[in-house]
Amino acid sequence: MVQFTRLFVSLCLIAASASAPTKRTVAQVEADIAKISSQVTALDNDIKGFPASGLPGVLNIHSTAQSLQSNFKTATSDVKANGAFNEADGTTILNDVLPIQPVLIGALSHIAAQKPAFANVPGAPSLILSDLRTLKTDEDAFGAALIAAAPADLEAQAVAIQNAIDTAFDKAIAAYA
Question: Tens digit of pLDDT for each residue in 10-20?
């Protein structure tokens, strides 16, 4: 009976340690941001390739949007698991995010402007609208996590980046709504 109790307690401790949330590192958050950057660039390129790419282009845009959604979710989780950034790490993260902003805003502007071309592909406008809404939700969660983790003196800049991206999402969504 004593051996069973020891075994049971040992298994419980192993299970508890395995289920405990793992603290993420700033390096992991930076790797997540690099993936987001790559996906935003791919999305921008897919959008710029339309309408010449036709239906396969619409499907590529959708696939890239889904990958980007997944990357936003992972990054959000990792930022939250990391907790507050110190000044140096907050500056590094902000500098990693800054180059993404104009590319994402450009992609959203392009997709809004190409609404008439997407309307020529059956089902494309509703698919694009769905992707835009989901991307905005996921990007907002990521932005909120970054703002919450940012040092106080970097918070205003992080909020300004988030607001600019939100405005671009709102315009793109309005074009398809």
Answer: 444 444 444 44
Cβ–Cβ contacts within 10 Å for residue 49, how many?
14
Question: Is the model's pLDDT at 168 over the cut of 50?
Answer: yes
Residue 31 CB-density burial (10 A; 0-12 exposed, 13-18 middle, 19+ buried): middle
pLDDT of res. 5: 43
The answer for residues whose C-beta is within 8 angstroms of residue 43's C-beta and 6 or more apart is 61, 64, 65, 68, 107
What value does the mean pLDDT take over residues 90-109? 97
CATH tag for 24-176 (out of 3.40.1000, 1.20.58, 1.10.600, 1.10.20): 1.20.58
pTM: 0.85
Contact of 149 with 82, CB cutoff 8 Å: yes
